[in-house]
Amino acid sequence: MWTDKLKKVKLILASGSPRRKQFFEDLDLEVTIDVRPVNEIYPDQLKGSEISDYLAVLKASKFKETLTKNEVVITSDTVVWYKDMSLAKPADDNEAYSMLRVLSNDWHEVITSVCFTTIHIQKIVNCTTQVKFKELTDEEIWHYIRKYKPFDKAGGYGIQEWIGLIGIEEIRGSHANVVGLPTHLVHKTLMDMVQGVI
After folding, report:
1. Are 79 and 52 in contact (CB under 8 A)?
2. Which of 93, 149, 177, 197 has the fewest CB atoms within 10 Å around its CB?
């Protein structure tokens, strides 16, 4: 059984996100949290999934010298992509407002890349979900920012929070991906790895 094989592997989740940790618990996968800070700077010419792929691999590089046999380190990065522009985590209230004002009444893409690294191999997968906000009022935007303080979220919002519940009209693709992890790809990749497909 793949479950028996997976028990022999130590999964290291290099993320401080409680949402990502919860996803692994929901997948019945035990993970050890180990966050190693990295300066998230990427080359200017990168676009969309190239950015999140690059940063996921960059985060994995912090583990290169310490990984041991049967360990898999999982790193990830999420990009909110709007009209050829990446919307990162807002630095303050005004930046969060500017992002949500831009996203209001339009479609954008949420792209999450996940990198799986062992002492032998490295595998990167990514997922893109299209999301449409209704036309948000200033009152709604400021209520959300002041109460929920979304400064740790790309694009300045969390789909699972109040703004997502009242503001998102349509989604094309994986909902879990917008929350922070394409769980279907994570599960498939890990199963492929423990069964020797990768």
Report:
1. yes
2. 197
Q: Which conformational region is residue 193 in: left (phi greater than 0), alpha (psi within -120 to 50 degrees), or beta?
A: alpha
- Residue 198: per-residue pLDDT: 54
How many Cβ atoms are within 10 Å of 94's Cβ, its own excluded? 10
Residue 196 pLDDT > 90, yes or no?
no
User: What is the largest distance, in Å, between two alpha-carbon atoms of the chain?
Assistant: 53
Determine how many CB atoms are found less than 10 A away from the CB of residue 191: 15
Catalytic entry in 4, 44, 53, 77: 77
Distance CA 127, CA 95 (A): 26
Q: pLDDT tens, 92-125?
A: 999 999 999 999 999 999 999 999 999 999 999 9
Residue 76 identity: S
d(CA 55, CA 39): 9
Pairing of strands 71-81, 10-13: parallel
Q: Active site includes 77? A: yes
pTM of the model: 0.92
